[in-house]
Amino acid sequence: MQLEIAAKRLAELGHETRLRIFRHLVRGGHQGVPVGEIQTSLDIPGSTLSHHISRLINVGLVVQRREGRTLYCIPQYEELDGLIGFLKEECCINESTDNSGC
């Protein structure tokens, strides 16, 4: 993962509301969570929620799927795994001892 992409994703997750939304989506699983449920569960006004979801979509952490009148938000686990991997990929490389714990 490129440094610029990682920085943008971390910046978006660095906002408390977006982090709450993303964590809620991750708990919801691969099928996604209806926008209305996110709004109700987290008590976020619709326009505010839309703004924050758009920011997560723009950095590739969330996609949306429409089923009839219901709009689902789906966390992108591969992108999340990539971000976590990026943060850990150089773990302990400057240590001279056994680094099997990283």
From TrEMBL:
Signal peptide: none annotated. Pfam families: HTH_20. SMART domains: HTH_ARSR (SM00418). Keywords: DNA-binding, Transcription, Transcription regulation. It comes from the Bacteria. CDD domains: HTH_ARSR. Residues 1-95 form the HTH arsR-type domain. PROSITE patterns: HTH_ARSR_2. SUPFAM superfamilies: Winged helix' DNA-binding domain (SSF46785). InterPro entries: ArsR-like_HTH, HTH_ArsR_DNA-bd_dom, Metal_resp_trans_reg, WH-like_DNA-bd_sf, WH_DNA-bd_sf. GO terms for molecular function: DNA binding; DNA-binding transcription factor activity. NCBIfam families: HTH_metalloreg. PANTHER family: ARSENICAL RESISTANCE OPERON REPRESSOR ARSR-RELATED (PTHR43132). This is Hypothetical transcriptional regulator, ArsR family protein. It comes from Neptuniibacter caesariensis. The lineage of its organism: Bacteria, Pseudomonadati, Pseudomonadota, Gammaproteobacteria, Oceanospirillales.
